[in-house]
Fold these 2 entries.
Entry 1:
Amino acid sequence: MAGRWTVIAQRQYEELTPQGTFRQMVEVTFQITSGSTGMVKIPAQLFNEEYAREKIEDVANVMIGVESLSG
């Protein structure tokens, strides 16, 4: 769903695993149309445009849904 979010930053870093080893990660920060920001962490070996879009879309959809909640 293009137009509902925009990537605003990307950062590569190493993350310590529970096994005591390090793995390369990419943190992608995005902004939804309301102005709220979200973030996804993606293992570097899986990092590509299609995978990042899928993960961002999953989180963005939840954020948009939560913002429309009322009681």
Entry 2:
Amino acid sequence: MAESAGMILFAGGVTFTNEWLQTRTPNFRIPVATLAASLFTYGLEKIYPKAANGLAVIVLITVFVTPIHGKSPLQTIVDVLPKPR
């Protein structure tokens, strides 16, 4: 599998899990959109690998820091980790 498509699939998994944790209901539109985006980046990587990898990195960064339905995935991770005493 292409490197960029793998990053897009990881970002989609993080988004799906975060949304599920926030709303308590799975949103099955996210996996469909993730598959479409990963197929796009897979094709783009065959034509121009640098652009595909750059786009995938931008998507990963955006997914981790953008709050959707309350908290971003990074905020959720910080809430789950134990606080120092």
